[in-house]
Each structure stands twice: as C-alpha cells, then as structure tokens.
User: Which sequence fits this backbone?
C-alpha cells in the first residue's frame, strides 16, 4: 500500500504509523464529562467504505495528517469538501 | 432428526453401512427452510458463535423457535479462516475462568455433538527470549495454576526434547531461555465446529438460513422488533449479533457506536510435510505462532495489518514478518514453499477482551470484539450468550465482559496496557 503524504508524496505504508478514526478527538480536555472522555477514548465509527483517519509519517517528515481511505478497497480518496 | 438416532448418527457401524452404498446415502446435515415470519430469537451471523448460541439456546434454555441468519455460507467468516489455536492460558481471572470453561466444553464437544471436531490437545508452548519474558511466563503460569488451570514451565532441555526443530543454539537470532506450556491446549477442525453445532441445533428445530443478509434492525420505542433482510422482514423480540468483524456495521444499524475497530488479520500455510511440530508454538516477542495441521501443513500467523480494513485480504508486510519470525525460530523450515495465505475481519476492542452482553437497545444483544482469539471461545461464547439472551441477564462467567465496562472503567486489559486503542 502506498500512502500519499501531503508533504512527501506517495510513500510505502511501512514508513507510517496509524492514528485511527479522525472523528475521535485526539486529546481530551480536562473539563470533559466522563461520557465525553469515554466516547473519545473508546467509541469508533468503524465504517465499511470511506473513512477519515490519522496517519503519522514516522520514517519520513514526521508530520501527522488526515486522509480519507476506503476501508474495503484500501484506496486513498480525495478529502471530502 | 435426532443426532444420536442409531440409524443416522455418525458411528463406526453407520460408516461401514454407508461405505457399502458408496457414501451416497448419508442424511443431509441440516434442513434449509425458508425463513418464518417471526421467531422468539434471531441470531445474526452463522459462524461458530451464532451456531453455538443457537445450540445452547435450544438445548439448555428450551428456546427452539429461533433462527440463525447468515449472509453467505456457514463458517465462511473468521470461523473458517482462523488458525484454530484453543487454549486458556490467561492471566486475569475473568479471562481465565471464561476460557477455561470453554476448554472444558471443547473436551467433551465431539461426543456431545456426535460430530468429530478433531480437538487435538497437543499442547501450546509460549517461548521466553529474555529473562523478563521468563519471569512474566512464571507469573502467568502461577496465576493459571491458582485458577486451577494446567501450566508447566519448560527449561531448555525440555524444549529441546519437545521441539527438536527449534533453534536453541547460542547463536540463535533470538535466544530461547525457556517456555510455558499448557498441555491441555491444542487445535481443532474449524469447519467441523460450525457444522457440528449447526447440525445439532437444526435437529432441535432451529432454522439455519444461509444467503440471508441482515440489512436493518427495526426498533420501536427503543425496543427491537425484528430485522430487515434480503429475504424480507423477520420479526423477533430478541436479536443477537454474532458477526465478528461486522459488529460495527450491525451496531450502526441500531444506532450504536461501539468500542470496536475492524482490522484484517492474515494467516498462511506451507506445503504439507511429514510430522515435525507436535505442539502449538507461540513467541510473544516476535508476535508469531505456528502449528502443524493434521494434513501436514505448517500453519502460521502473526500481526494484524494495523489499519481499519474490511478487505479480508492484507498486505505482504505482516506475512513477511511472520515468515522471518518463523525462520528465526525454525531455520530448517526455510525451504518450505507457501501454499496459500488469507485474511479475516477482526473485531478489535479497545481493551483486547470480548463483549458478550446486553446493549442499550432493549432486546438487542452483542457477542463480539473477539480480536484474535474468538475461535477457542466458540463453545463458552455461545453458552454464555444463550444464557444472556434467554434470561435477559449475563451469567457470572460473562458479566465482566459487558459493553458498559468501557464507560465505567472496569476494563479487562490482559496486557496491562490500559485503555489504549490499537492495543494489538
Ligand atoms: C487469520 C486468523 C487467525 C485466527 N486465529 C485464531 C486462533 O488461532 N485461535 C482463536 O481462538 N481465534 C483465532 N482467530 C479469531 C477467530 O477466528 C474469531 O474470533 C472467531 O472465529 C469468531 O467467530 P464468530 O462466529 O464470532 O465470527 P465469524 O465466523 O466471522 O462469523 C460471523 C458471520 O457473520 C456473518 N455476517 C456478517 N454480517 C452479516 C449480516 N449483515 N447478515 C448476516 N450475516 C452476517 C458473516 O458472513 C460471518 O459468517 C483468528 C482469526 C483470523 C482471521
Ligand atoms: Zn511525509
């Protein structure tokens, strides 16, 4: 699988770390309720099809970015408007 | 049909009798009826868990007006794709008790179902490559013994006798210091488990319906009333989900967002060879395990690909890693050719433990989140899920595996890593 890094272009998947569902807040504010913290930590959309997700180019530019990928075909898609 | 009927049961006598007619007259193993308009319980998913649940619902709870709906063929999901390791070598008490109950059911399963599930207790050995690995295995072994589960620590001499092909030389890439064996662990025939439960459930009147995909879950006032399917609406006051990697999709049909991500896990087999490995061998450090099938193939597996996937096929990278790990442990296998590889949809939870529970939707029950390890759980998963559905409350064995443990913080994190997504 080639992953399109917005900074480095398409690179082999082995260079990347996966960050999962981009709709789950990456940080939990201290004022969050227990329900909000639970949702952010544990609950996922987990769709079959387009999925907005986080990737980290660990062995490259070391930047986090968001990408849209089809979880059935593994094809990377253009970001939805 | 009675599965123990002397005329139709699987027995030596009937094997001989059917041999005389060229094996053309064996009875069909289950009916394939069209769905009825309504059932007391509908189970979604005809893998091991759905079929085992149907069996125990009918056998132990008298619920025979039940159906199992499978979108393709029985056991075509993870049940037919897994590497069939069966063990109960867990550290934490809820896991130990649950998986040991499962192992005990496995031990009597072929007789109970009149169906040879080929359960072979050849032992499962986990290797230690460092002193801290070994200390960890000792702790695990002691915890297992305190829970009444068999565990034996093996030193290097014992390993050399038990696993002659294992590289125990001082120059090994990963030195082996010892291992922990669960002698009662082993492997089973994956398809047979699905077919055996299906045949026995069908014999008690459960309808097993293949090529019937559930496309919606109908609710009224927060209660389940039935399922929409490709064969039309089927009414049921109780619906149990046993769909493994599709749990998120079925959950979403009922408006639930679950603590589950679907990932692909691959496995592979080599060409068949003469007996060379008579235990299941696992290495935590390499995240690799191997066994030899009764047909002689070496069965190997390793890591999930590591990103959400519904593809049922994976990338070559984890396969390469598995092969490299295999050769680090067993250099002699280097000349074997790979026969095939495949993938299945893993329902990965956020603490690495399964969910067998009621859901916030009344009448909707969830059996899922099996991660890598749901095949060995098939008997106990079905047994506990049937109890939960029939009584509308969990059994003590599955009460810890609730859905709300993620909200309350009562996680069952066998790895002791906390609430970490992508724990695996
Ligand atoms: C490569 C690999 C190796 C593994 N190795 C092991 C191992 O060594 N030991 C171990 O214990 N476990 C192992 N596992 C895990 C184990 O296979 C699973 O946890 C277990 O088989 C799950 O059983 P199940 O009945 O829940 O799911 P499945 O067998 O996947 O059954 C679910 C069924 O639901 C059906 N379904 C899905 N959506 C719908 C719908 N909308 N309508 C109707 N039907 C639907 C599917 O078609 C499928 O047949 C492995 C898994 C894989 C992929
Ligand atoms: Zn980059």
Assistant:
């Amino acid at each position: 699988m080639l992953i399109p890094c917005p900074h480095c272009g398409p690179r082999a998947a082995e260079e990347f770390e996966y960050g999962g569902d981009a709709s789950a807040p990456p940080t939990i504010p201290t004022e969050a309720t227990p329900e909000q913290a639970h949702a952010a930590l544990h609950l996922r959309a987990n769709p079959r099809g387009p999925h907005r997700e986080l990737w980290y180019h660990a062995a490259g530019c070391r930047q986090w970015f968001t990408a849209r990928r089809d979880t059935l075909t593994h094809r990377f898609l253009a970001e939805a408007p | 049909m009675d599965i123990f009927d002397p005329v139709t049961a699987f027995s030596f006598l009937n094997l001989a009798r059917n041999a005389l007619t060229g094996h053309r007259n064996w009875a069909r193993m289950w009916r394939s009826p069209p769905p009825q308009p309504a059932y007391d319980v509908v189970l979604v998913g005809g893998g091991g868990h759905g079929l085992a649940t149907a069996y125990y619902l009918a056998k132990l709870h008298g619920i025979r007006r039940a159906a199992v709906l499978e979108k393709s063929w029985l056991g075509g999901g993870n049940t037919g794709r897994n590497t069939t390791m069966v063990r109960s070598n867990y550290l934490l008490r809820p896991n130990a008790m649950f998986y040991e109950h499962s192992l005990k059911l496995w031990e009597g399963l072929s007789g109970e179902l009149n169906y040879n599930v080929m359960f072979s207790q050849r032992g499962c050995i986990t290797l230690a490559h460092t002193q801290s690995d070994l200390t960890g295995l000792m702790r695990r072994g002691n915890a297992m013994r305190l829970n009444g589960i068999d565990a034996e620590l093996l030193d290097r001499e014992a390993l050399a006798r038990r696993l002659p092909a294992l590289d125990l030389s001082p120059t090994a890439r990963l030195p082996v210091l010892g291992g922990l064996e669960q002698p009662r662990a082993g492997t089973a025939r994956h398809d047979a488990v699905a077919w055996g439960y299906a045949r026995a459930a069908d014999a008690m009147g459960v309808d097993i319906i293949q090529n019937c995909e559930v496309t919606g879950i109908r609710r009224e006032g927060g209660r389940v009333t039935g399922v929409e399917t490709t064969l039309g609406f089927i009414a049921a006051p109780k619906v149990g989900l046993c769909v493994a990697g599709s749990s998120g999709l079925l959950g979403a049909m009922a408006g639930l967002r679950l603590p589950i991500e679907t990932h692909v896990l691959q496995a592979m087999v080599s060409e068949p060879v003469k007996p060379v490995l008579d235990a299941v061998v696992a290495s935590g450090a390499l995240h690799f395990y191997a066994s030899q099938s009764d047909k002689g193939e070496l069965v190997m597996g390793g890591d999930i690909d590591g990103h959400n996937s519904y593809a049922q096929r994976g990338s070559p990278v984890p396969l390469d890693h598995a092969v490299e790990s295999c050769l680090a442990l067993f250099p002699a296998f280097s000349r074997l050719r790979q026969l095939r590889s495949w993938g299945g949809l893993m329902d990965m939870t956020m603490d690495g433990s399964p969910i067998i529970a009621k859901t916030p939707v009344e009448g909707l029950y969830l059996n899922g989140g099996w991660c890598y390890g749901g095949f060995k759980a098939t008997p106990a998963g079905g047994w506990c899920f049937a109890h939960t559905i029939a009584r509308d409350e969990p059994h003590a064995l599955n009460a810890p595996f609730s859905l709300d443990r993620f909200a309350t913080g009562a996680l069952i994190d066998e790895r002791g890593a906390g609430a970490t997504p992508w724990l695996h």
Chain B touches chain A through 24 residues (CB under 8 Å). The first strand of chain B starts at residue 41 and ends at 44.
